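Re: the pair you flagged

First of the two:
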Amino acid sequence: MDEVEKLLEITEELVELTKQSKDQHRDRDQVIQKIEDLLAKREELTKSMNPPFTPKEKEAGRKIIQLNQILVEQLKLIKQEIQHDIVKMKAQKEMTKKYMNSYANATIDGIFYDKKK
């Protein structure tokens, strides 16, 4: 199998993996690790590819470009999901702090001092 076909296979695997990551919130760390590994392999393959390309390889290259556009969009969605989860977690953390220490930020406005003895 030549490098362009390997690159196409890895790109297809990445697209499928990113589609699956939407369904698997629990295993997101493992999916992200697999994505990183496949992206590293893909980068090595692109560096080792040298022209001239055969017509079959050119067709595979066109398909890779189409899949790459889909992959970029799916990776953006995964990134947005992670950012949303981080924001939600920070807000939850703040609410927990406020609940656990509800009197820490008590204001002195409206306090009545009794001057009688």
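Second of the two:
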Amino acid sequence: MFQYAAASGGGNILSLVGPFVLMFVVFYFLLIRPQQKKTKARNGMLKSLSKGAKVVTIGGLHGTILEISDDIVVLRVNDVTKLTFDRGSISHSIVEKEDKE
């Protein structure tokens, strides 16, 4: 009777660990991997910013880049107003569609 319990102990560990491994795989493909892709795309967008690009900040402010350095961006909001932001505070860049005439 004790020999049977000792022999089946290995199967119990596999049946206990299996669902946790399956949950990790599901979390990886549903949560972790898409977040890594978004982060990679955002970092690429921040690196590709240049003067004259129209951007939106995290706070929703629309502006055009006047000056840019490694970590500072100066935006022109209207004809007179210039605001300084950290480069990481840029949410996304606005791509204007060309008129098809």
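The mean pLDDT is 87.

-B.
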